[in-house]
Amino acid sequence: MTEPVDLRAASPDDAADLAELERVANLLALAHVFPADEHPFPAAEVEARWRRVLADVGVTVDVLRDGDGLLAFVAYDDRVLRHLGVRPDAWRRGLGRTLVEHAVSRMGPAPRLWCLVDNTRARSLYARLGWRETGRSQPAEWPPYPIQIEYVLDHLVTDL
Prior knowledge:
Layout: E1 7-9, H1 15-29, H2 43-55, E2 60-66, E3 69-76, E4 80-86, H3 95-104, E5 112-116, H4 120-128, E6 132-139, E7 147-152
Parallel strand pairs: 4-5
Antiparallel strand pairs: 1-2, 2-3, 3-4, 5-7, 6-7
């Protein structure tokens, strides 16, 4: 894995940018799950969630920026990969993979994550990286509360 040279810890000042990147990516990748005309993106609530995540001393949020602003982010604690996002104009450049590997290398054994069933882009990435479904599911936190499934990484694969 090649670490991005400008990957850095996020600060509270990044909350609005994190929420905005999440909004832009979700409007493209998850429009079939969260139709904007029926379920507008909850911008204020997502930004408030980011402020709580950034204030949680048990969570690490790392961000990658370029000349156009926030390019990607990953949030994780010792056991759970909590959030991953890449700006749509940077999709298919390996940033998601790099950030997942970055987080996993800092997490404890058998890291876990939750992913929307209908998030085929993310599910494909996690499968390629060796994550497997545990069989557990739960509703997501935002309307219309789609189902998300749990994944686990039982071992670190070093020859990805």
